Amino acid sequence: MLEKTTHLQFSKTFCLAILALHMAFPIMAQEKPELKIGGALRFNYNISSWKDGQKKRGGDFGYDMFRINAEAAYKGIFLNAEYRLYSEGFGGGFLKQGWVGYNFNELNQIHIGLTQVPFGIQQYNSHNWFFNLSYYVGLEDDHDMGVKYLHTGEKFEYQLAFLKNAEELKFGNNTETSPNRYSYDVVGRNKEVNQFNGKFIYKFGKESASRLGVSLEYGGLYNLDTEEMGDHSAFAAHYEITKGKWNGKAQFITASHNPENAEGEPTDVVTMAAYGAPYEVAADFNMYSLAISRNVPVEWGPVTNLQFYNDFAFMQKKASGFTDSYMNVTGVLVSAGSVYTYIDYAAGYNHSWLGGNFVDDFAKGNPDAKWEARFNINIGYYF
Q1: What are the backbone angles phi and psi of residue 321, rounded to the nearest 5°?
Q2: Measured between alpha carbons, how far is residue 203 from residues 110, 158, 211, 293 in Å?
Q3: CA torsion sign, 346 to 347 to 349 to 354?
Q4: pLDDT of 9-67, one tens digit each?
Q5: Contact 318, 284 (CB under 8 A)
Q6: What are the distances in angstroms from CA 28 to CA 24, 80, 105, 158, 329?
Q7: Can you list the domains of the chain with their CATH numbers?
């Protein structure tokens, strides 16, 4: 009971602090309303090393995703929303992000709604279409429901957020979190609640623009069976550098989940889901990632740029008897006007989306697993 009361008091204190910041800064007024509509249509070709039938027919080519983006602004208040429609097998339609913001001034703003969680290198800790391993455990391009304060200065940036919960699609008393979502969250008999995030960036260098930062995350894990509050936490140290046509990203993450499960239920794994498909993830792990890219301008008809990249990540699981997971993606992004094409060779070891056993590759894993690979071409028209 004391822990629950402390969570509630901390939440109220955080919200009052945000309101105080609102009163402290002058209003950024905007007299004329603005509205911008955009979106994308994407198709995907792939052939996978572990799918014998697919290899015999030379791979598959089909529909990936259609999305609509809306941005609006008036009198310092602005909106940002993105709705995606995938095939039924990948969760169907859902909101990726949707929030209302307010500009206190040129350096400070607030977001309320389904907003990106301030953690790690953003917007992505990767260059390729597959993201990096951090995405598949809910620590890259994650979006949750709450309030976020952002400060963007010349040398320092910071973001502070209180996330009440993941996207809530069913408002029952003991309803499980839906697996139909864009970003990975804890699902099943545990729910992410009352999460606090802080992210701090120091910027330096001109010819070699650098962003050195740390991120912190702490929140509750409410169990629907025991009605007890566990917790989860994560810490990241990250560095990104851009020099001319080169970009590099390096990140270290340590994460822990401590669910208060029913008797007999394991506590060394948690269930996560996105795109309608749940799987198990090791409760405690370290993660190391390194990504590098280089832009090569060209003049090949409509093609104006080639971005070559290699993104690598290693997931070190702390539980005894668990086998680690790896991921490496080598590829190129071809830019041609409004058409962007990712050509990727994605390889994984104990990776749920790259061969093996989907259900527990990111949890216990298989010491006898072998590296599997997928050749993928994603073609998108963005407007």
Answers
A1: 90, -5
A2: 21, 11, 5, 20
A3: positive
A4: 545 555 555 445 444 444 445 578 999 999 999 999 999 999 999 999 999 999 999 99
A5: yes
A6: 13, 17, 5, 20, 43
A7: 2-382 (2.40.160.10)
